[in-house]
Amino acid sequence: MTVASAQRRRFGAGSARAAMLGPLALGGVLLVLVPILMTIVLSFLRYNGLESPQAAGFDNFARVAADPIFRETLLNTLLFVVVAVPLRLLIATGAALALSRPGRGAGVARGLVYVPTVVPDIAFALLWSWVINPITGPFAPWLGASLVATPWGARATIVLVASFQIGEAFLVALIARRAIPSSLYEEAAVEGASRWFTFRHLTLPILLPVLGLLAARDVVVSFQASFVPALVITDGGPLYATTFLPVHAYRTGFEFLRFGPAAVMTLVALAGAALMVAVMGLTLRAALKRRGGHLLG
Description:
Blueprint: H1 3-42, E1 45-46, E2 54-55, H2 59-65, H3 68-98, H4 106-118, H5 121-131, H6 140-143, H7 151-162, H8 167-178, H9 182-190, H10 195-225, H11 227-234, H12 245-255, H13 259-291
């Protein structure tokens, strides 16, 4: 093969990669980068959607920092993420491990786990509004009173609703589990290892990078996944107990027409998610180093 033909082949391969990655890069710019830049610009403006925008400097940041409702919504959001992310990951991983082996009804069970994820959020929230209704719901004789009548009951309800939409994490965990060679488990069985020992020293270390990635992804999702159920099921109440950052930003921007403070709240949510993901990444890397540097490859 001549140098010229080798260069043409490399150029052709590079062009093919560029053609395949082009739509993804374009979508990332239009759907991610441009909205982030617009949100940053909007956070320094005084704008209500009806009049011309005016420069506001850091006034929007000061107004948000002095807003007691914002501080409460920030705590609500962090509490939701801290509780919902481990719970969702635990359920998804447990379901993946339980349904990883082929068996009678396994396919149907996998489908049932995945179905809530493809149901539109508004439809899923309306379904749960009917399920927990203390008068007309199917569990009305046992509920006695509304689950969302108290602050902690309302928070628990939103977490419960979110814990059913785990299809994507379940699917990734299932694929990762089934990719582990069965010969490893056969060798562990020959050595007399118990199921708990095998899970702790074989399955979990191999799945740990995947679980870390799923946890980071779920943190980002959880900062916005509470929006629809909180708005539809609890309307942000009672007493702002389920008013999360997305709900407060939505009402500030589209009900009170204060787009500058709403943009600041959106940036706070973005920064909070990025900070938590960074901390999780460092923690995961340290855990992988402790278990052996070969896992970092």
